[in-house]
Amino acid sequence: MRVASKMDYKVVFSALERVCQENISVLCGPSDLPYGTVTKRLVTSMKQIQEHGRALEPMVASFSSIYHHYDFDAQTPGNGYRTLVKVLQSCLLHIVHKGQYIASNYSGAFFRAEHNAAEMEAYCSALCQLRALLYLAQRLIHDNEHGQLYIQQDSDLNRSFVQEYSSMHKACFYGRCLGFQFSPALRPFLQTIIISMVSYGEAYGKQQSGIGTAALSLLTSGKYVIDPELRGAEFERITQNLDMQFWKSFWNVTESDILSGFTRIASNPVQVNFTLTVPPVPLRLPLASDPRLSTTVSPPIAHWGPGPVHMRLVSYDLREGQDSEELLGFSRSDPPPISSRLPWIQEQPRSPWLLIHFHGGGFVAQTSRSHENYLRNWSKVLGVPILSVDYSLSPEAPFPRALEECFYAYCWALNNCQLLGSTAERVCLVGDSAGGNLCITVSMRALTSGIRVPDGIVAAYPATLLTTDASPSRLLTLIDPLLPLGVLAKCLNAYAGSDFQTIQPADRRGSLSALGRDTAMLLSDLTQGVSNWVQSFLDPSRTSGGSPSPRGNHIRRTSTDLAFQNSADSIHYPDGFEPLRSNCPAFVNPTSCPVMRNPFVSPLLAPSSLLRGLPPVHIVASALDALLDDSVMFAKKLRAMEQPVSLTVVEDLPHGFLSLSQICKETQFASDMCVARVREVFLQENTRNALPKDL
Fold first, then answer.
1. What are the pLDDT digits (tens) for 561-612?
2. CB of 410 closer than 8 Å to CB of 356
3. What ranges do the domains of the chain cover?
4. Where are any strands of DSSP class E within 298-437?
5. What is the rounded CA–CA span in Å between residue 404 and residue 422?
6. Strand-strand pairing, 554-555 and 581-582
7. Cis peptide leading into 335, omega within 30 of 0?
8. Is 576 left (phi over 0), alpha (psi -120 to 50) or beta?
9. Where are the alpha helices (DSSP H) in 476-614?
10. Tens of pLDDT along 43-95?
C-alpha cells in the first residue's frame, strides 16, 4: 500500500492553500463577474475548505510520524490510521483539481456555475466530516495501548463512536462524492449500486417483491441519477433505519436468474456445477494424533435440531467420482447437469487438492450462487474441485448454526472427497468477510475435536471481531457506501441472535422462488414504473420517505444536537469546530450481547490455546476496508504466538472486492492474489515448518 510521505502531504496541503487563495482572489475580484449568488457560495466553500486544511495539516503530520508502529511489519504498511490519511488525501486532491478548474474557467461561456458550486459544497462537507474522523482517531491513539488498534471493551469511546455514527451527517459521501477514495474504475459501478439500492428502498414494502420490485426500482431511478443530493439523503435514510429484511431482500436480488445469467456469461464455463443436500447423519473421522482411533461428529442441531447441509460443487474439469450415482444421489437438481452425458467430455483423474469455500454476506445474505463468478474462474486456474457451503443464514439461524453446518460440511468432504473428484491430500479453506471468519472458526473446531485441520486458510477481508468496538479503520463505517456501521451492526446482532426468529427455513431458496413468482407481474410493474419515473422528473423534490429538500439534509446545531454533545460519552471537538449533523438520526443497537465475545464468534478474542496449532493463515485485506484492522490485529496475534501467517494489503478497493473481480483490473489483481495464496497452500511441502512469505 502506498501512503503519502511527509513531503507528499506537505505538497498536497500547499496546493490546497494555493488553490483556495487563488479562487478567493478570482471570485472576490471584479464586481462584474457573473453568477452573483453562486459566487458567494463558492467563496464560502473555499474559505471553509481553507480553514479545514489549516487545521488538518498538523494532525496529518502527527499521524504520519507514528502510524508505522501499527503496521503488521515493515514490508506490509497498512492500518486504519494510514487509511484515514489516505482517504483524506484523496478528498484534498479532488478539491485541488476542482478548484484549479474553477479558477481557470469561471469566466468562460460554458462554465456550469451551479454544478461546480454544488460539487465544491459537497466536498467541503466531506472534508468537514473527515476532519471529525481524524479527531476521533486522535482519541483512539490517546486511549489505546501502544500498537493496539482496538479500544478496550465497554469503553466510553466505543459508545461515543456509535453515537457519532447515529448523529453525524453522511449523505455527502453517497451523492457527488460517492466513492472518491476508491479506484476510479469502480466509481461508476458504485454509483449504479447506490442508485439501485435507493430505488429499491423506495419500492420496498409496496406489495411488490423480487423481480417486480427490481423492475419498479429500475424505472424510478431517474431522479437519483440527476439529483446526487437527493440520492445521498435517501441512501443515508435507508442505511440508518431500514430493517434487516430489506438488506436480505436487496442482496438476494443478485441471485435472480437474470443477474446470475450475466455472471455465467462473464466467467469461465465449467463441466460440473450443481447443488448437493447432505442428510444429517453422524460422521466418523480418524483422530489426527492417532488415525487408528476415531471420533464422532454430530450433524448440526442448534436452534431446531438436526437438519441437512446444502453445498455446491464446482469443477472446471469432470473428474473421477463426480458423475457417480452416489454423489448424484445428493443432488438437488433433477437431473443434475453433468457434462459426462456429452461423449466428447473426457473424465480426468481425481485432483490431489480440494478447496472448500464459505461465502460472505454478513452471515445474513447470499449463497454460493452469488459467488460463482470467481469460483468458476478459480476452478479453472487452479485445476481444483471447489465445494462451496450454503450455510443457514441469520437472523433465522444465528450462531452457532452456520458454524455447525460449515464444520459438518468440512468433515463430510474429508470423508467423501473421492466423490468430489479429489484425493484431499491437501485441503484449503477459503472465505471472504463472514466466510473468512468461518474458515478460522471451523479450523478451531477441528483442533478442539482432534481431527485433521486443513492445510491452510485463505481469508479475504475477514471479520475477526464481531462487535462495534472502535478502531481507526472502523471509523470508515461512517462514510463507507458498502459497509455502513448501521448495516454492519444489524448483521452482527442478527448473527449473535439478538434478533432471533425461531423459524426453521423450510426452503433456503425462498427468495429465488419469489423472484420467479413475480415474473408474471413484470409488465404491470413496468407500466407503473414508467408512470412513477415520469412523475419523478415533474416533481424532483418528491421522495419516498418525505425527506427534506437536498440542501436541507444536514444542519450545524439544534437543541437535540446540543443535548447529544453534552452527554457523558460525547466527543469533545476543538473550540469552533463541529461536524455536520444528520436530520434523520439512526438507532444503532450496540453489539453488547455476550455471544459476541465468544472466541468462536470473534476469533481475535480467542485464547492462545484455541489458536495454537492452526494451519498457515493467509489474509488478503484492502487498505480502504473498514475491517482492515481486524486483519492486522489478528495477523499480529498469530505471529506473536509463532503461528504461520501472512498478510497482504491491496490498494484502493472496498470491502467485498472478490465479488467485483471482473469489474476492473484492480479487483482482478486482488482476486489473483487470493489464488496465489491458495496455490501456495497446495504447493508448500511442509506448511508447519516455516512462515509463508509474501509473493
1. 433 344 445 678 988 899 999 988 888 877 778 899 999 999 999 999 999 9
2. yes
3. 6-148, 184-257+469-582, 275-468+597-683
4. 309-315, 351-358, 386-390, 422-432
5. 23
6. antiparallel
7. yes
8. left
9. 485-496, 510-518, 522-538, 559-565, 608-611
10. 999 999 999 999 999 999 999 999 999 999 999 999 999 999 999 999 999 99
What's the pLDDT tens digit per position in 516-571? 333 333 333 333 433 343 333 334 333 333 333 334 444 444 433 433 344 445 67
Contact 3, 77 (CB under 8 A): yes
Pairing of strands 645-650, 554-555: unpaired
471 contacts 140 by C-beta, under 8 angstroms? yes
Cell numbers linked to 615:
494451519
Residue whose cell numbers read 486544511: 53
Positions annotated as catalytic residues are 433, 625, 655
- Cell triple for 302: 442448534
CB 482 within 8 A of CB 655: yes
Sorted by sequence, the CB contacts under 8 Å of residue 45 that are 6+ apart come out as: 117, 120, 121, 124
Q: How far is CA 216 from the centre of its chain?
A: 26
Instruction: Please tell me the distance from the alpha carbon of residue 488 to that of residue 478, in angstroms, as a whole number.
Output: 11
To the nearest 10°, the Cα dihedral for 95, 101, 107, 110? -110
Separation between Cα atoms, residue 177 and residue 192, nearest integer Å:
14
Cα gap 394→591, rounded to integer Å: 15
> Phi then psi for 533, rounded to 5 degrees?
-65, -50
* Dihedrals phi, psi of 684, to nearest 5 degrees: -70, 125
| CATH 3.40.630.30 given to domain 275-468+597-683 | no
The distance in angstroms from the start CA to the end CA of the chain is 15
- Ramachandran angles phi, psi of 301, nearest 5°: -135, -10
Q: Mean pLDDT in the chain? A: 83
Residue 63 CA: distances (Å) to CA of 49, 142, 448 = 20, 12, 42
What's the Rg (C-alpha) of the chain? 26
Give dist(CA 468, CA 466) in Å, integer: 7
Q: How many CB atoms lie within 10 A of CB 435?
A: 29
d(CA 170, CA 485): 11
Number of helices followed by number of strands (H, E) in the chain: 22, 12
Amino acid identity for residue 359 in this structure: H
Distance between CA 135 and CA 359 in Å, rounded?
36
